[in-house]
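Can you make up a polypeptide sequence alongside its tokenized fold?
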Amino acid sequence: MNPTLPFARSLRQNEGGSPRLFVVVDTEEEFDWSAPPSRTARDVTAMCHIDRVQKIFDRFDLKPTYVIDHPVATQPAGYEPLLSIYRRGKCEIGAHIHPWVNPPFSEQLCARNTFLMNLPTSMQGEKLKILTEAIEAVIGQAPTVFKAGRYGLGPDTVPLLEANGYRVDNSVCPRMDYSSAGGPSFADFDASPFMMSNLMMEIPCTVDYVGWAGPLRRSLHSAASHQLLQSLRGVGILSKIGAVNRVMLSPEGNTLSEMMALAGALVERGTRALTLSFHSPSVSPGHTPYVRTQQDLDDFLGRIEGFCEFFFGRLNGLPDTMLGFYDRTISHTGPTA
């Protein structure tokens, strides 16, 4: 197992059961993705349009988990659009830390420190405590689902989460390696849920390789991704010929066909817990690289709707929530010893 998370206990999946779909929305401020981190970029104007995706989820009886960060949790324009959804029982609310806009601001503002795991343990704890209390003040109870911004989960973060009452984490991004930027590597992880402490469950993002290359998929993709071969566009060539493609179950940067291919392949391999994820600013044009125009927005929403139709129709899947999955799993297996 990757040294980022030294402890892990796998969870048995009922391969004969119906696949379950979770939705996690990184609910955050709007910022320039190509610019250095800024403490002043805290606008949450896109949140007034969150109903654009919520209407789709309501149609399929899906209860998304909106993991909200400090700018959303502390500004009425950020959290009020969620409160009516939450009070109707149509969503769950968790926590999402962007360290650069989450007080206290004791650390140096730099790219490396945008990964929570790189901050001193005490500072991680302070930021987590402030965000947890802010969310509790808004929804009336402490959140129990967490996702680190930029997937910046480290071994020191896990006990802090458990001590603050968190039970489910969604920070692991399988098959991805962010170490060149100072972040974690999850290259050795797959999308299967696992226990990463006595009480903490990891339900990873859903990312994996698809294609006819079979067991060679990962090694081929890694070789083509090497810096010396990037100019040859090997990754794109391998994808185009159908040999291997690394796909995330997200309407951002992935086609509907790719999302369906990934879900179908994982279900065929025995995976029964899949997570659809995206960023909240994508519900309004101009805030993320994925949705720049009205046409981009229409396509983005169409991919979400189309995937839900595929998952609940062709794959006979069921809607689920991370907390519901956690409660059922723990009741059957009990916490680890």
